[in-house]
Automatic annotation (TrEMBL):
GO terms for molecular function: rRNA binding; structural constituent of ribosome. This is Small ribosomal subunit protein uS15. CDD domains: Ribosomal_S15p_S13e. GO terms for cellular component: cytosolic small ribosomal subunit. Belongs to the universal ribosomal protein uS15 family. It holds the Pfam family Ribosomal_S15. Part of the 30S ribosomal subunit. Forms a bridge to the 50S subunit in the 70S ribosome, contacting the 23S rRNA. Forms an intersubunit bridge (bridge B4) with the 23S rRNA of the 50S subunit in the ribosome. One of the primary rRNA binding proteins, it binds directly to 16S rRNA where it helps nucleate assembly of the platform of the 30S subunit by binding and bridging several RNA helices of the 16S rRNA. It comes from the Bacteria. The keyword Ribonucleoprotein applies.
Amino acid sequence: MQPQSKAINFIDMYLTSEVKKNIFSEHGKTAADTGSAEGQIALFTHRIQHLTGHLKINKNDKVTERSLVRLVGKRRRLLDYLKEKDIERYREIIKKLNIRK
């Protein structure tokens, strides 16, 4: 019996085109709608969740920590844009993705 390692399953970690299509089809108008704010916010949220899981295991990974902060900032700017343009879409996406205001 081998000891369990803390290694992450890299298949789950990569953002494959199938995962992206699922995210965009669920949160955008179509699977090809990669430009909508909702789709981009959902994609950033997915990436943020993966980086957060990585940082729980690798606490001293400062490069990943910086990347996480940058992604959160990008998502925040998109959320601010959406809030300014269409408050109902903003409320819907934060509720759907369970994002704090």
